[in-house]
Amino acid sequence: MEVDKGKGEAEETRKVAEADRDTVTLKSSDGKLFEVSKEAAARLSTVLAGMIAGGSIDDNGTDLKQIGSEALENVVDYCNKHANSIPSAALISSSISFNTAPFKEPEEWERKFVDRLSHDALFDLVEAANFLGMERLLDVTCHKISEMMKGKSPDQIREVFNIKNDYTKEELEEIRQELAWAFYDD
Amino acid sequence: MAGTYTGLSWSDLPIDILHTILQYLEVPQRVAFASVCSTWRSASAASGVPNSSVPWFMSWTDLREERKKMHGGRALTCSFYHLLDVDKAYAVSFPRCFVACCGASHGWLIMVNELSNLVLYNPFTMATIDLPPVTDFSCVEAVYDDSGALEHYIFVKKRVHETKYLGTWFYHGVISCALAQFLHLNTQIVSDSKLAELILMDARRLHTQL
Q1: Which of A50, A64, A75, B15 is the most buried (most CB within 10 A)?
Q2: How far is the CA of A111 from the CAs of A23, A115, B166, B205, B210, in angstroms?
Q3: How much is the pLDDT for B85?
Q4: Do B42 and B88 belong to one domain?
Q5: Per the record, which residues fall in region Disordered (chain A) (predicted)?
Q6: Domain that holds residue A66
């Protein structure tokens, strides 16, 4: 009897602790666990917000099978940095304007955040941001990708992104004629 | 190799990601983007008429001079300058049938063809939208010679206009006033694709008024 009561109390305490937790645990495709601020996750990712609201967050690590550990680490890092970078008073208004406001230039820390990534890491991060419905992170990563193309010819862009030219000779000639003015031949 | 987990390459990026990237590219760069590979080209085509956030300079004089010099069916080229890189001239080709350019809006040029009809032309996608012919207006009458070729137009039964001037006059004198008024009242609802409808609508309204 005594023992049972103790168990019940422990259960109760655990439940309270769960509800009070201000982080969620996310599990990458390769089984690594990451803790992220619940508030930041819900604010920055529509998918995570839905999961949190719908109670489908697993305390032992919510499976995100589509995201590798390196990308998930970057996502979590971004969420945590974002949580720290905005004064708490501005939180509510910024979360409202996020969906409607046009993209603003990346902030200094966001620029640095994506600048340090390798091409592969950037690729994984843009896919993860898209998958998790993280509009702001998607904007920041896509902005970075667009910067990498600026002032470059199609050939140079292919080289940067290691893309195979899949046009036939005829198609290429057709495009060249159609868009001749845009080729940086001179 | 790009995606360490998915093993996908940059050319396999989902179309919504490609669209987000495209919105950060200025027009010349969007064209380079489209020339990279076929997936990127379809993404670029699907994202519609490119919207340049920086205005272009267009040197129409070149085109007129070139037109005088040239005979035959070849396309004309005209120099475009982008404000972010004014040292670089882009040679943009135009169909030969255009004789004048009388305005621009939302990425479309309002061109006049040899018959003085107005045509909307997007110099980057080369899309054209024919507007109703000037003879649709009851006040404009076409006069043909013996061989059936168009000789000139008569406007309100008295003034004779050479075909190539009527178009520009028509735009400046009539359409632009009506359009400016309309746009002023409805700035919020006007989008690229609506422009053609708008001019069409105004033209029809004027038609009934005249």
Answers
A1: A75
A2: 26, 6, 54, 52, 59
A3: 72
A4: no
A5: 1-21
A6: 2-150
> Confidence band (pLDDT; 50, 70, 90) for A98?
very low
Q: Clarify whether residues B86 and B173 are in a common domain.
A: yes
The number of folded domains in chain B is 2
* E strand residue ranges, A38-135: 62-63
Specify if B106 maps to a domain.
Answer: yes
* Per-residue exposure over B7-37, b if at least 16 CB sit within 10 Å of its own CB, e if not: eebbbebeeebbbbbbbbbbbbbbbbbbbbb
* pLDDT, tens only, A108-158: 899 999 999 999 999 999 999 999 999 999 999 999 999 999 888 889 999
Chain A contacts of B35, Cβ < 8 Å? 154, 175-176, 179, 182-183
Q: 72-101 in A: which are within 8 Å (CB) of B?
A: none
Asked if A148 has any chain B CB less than 8 Å from its own CB, the reply is: no
Confidence of residue B157 (pLDDT cuts 50, 70, 90): low
Residues of B with CB under 8 A from a CB of A: 1-6, 8-11, 13-14, 16-17, 20-21, 23-25, 28-29, 31-38, 40-41, 77, 80, 90-93, 126
As a residue count, chain A comes to 186
Residue in B closest to A119 by C-alpha: B2
User: At B2, is the pLDDT very low, low, confident or very high (cuts 50, 70, 90)?
Assistant: low
CB contact under 8 A, A152 and B32: yes
Closest CA–CA distance from residue A4 to any residue of chain B (Å): 47
**A51 and A132, same structural domain?**
yes
Looking at the predicted structure, is the pLDDT value of residue B189 above 50?
Answer: no
CB of B34 closer than 8 Å to CB of B45: yes
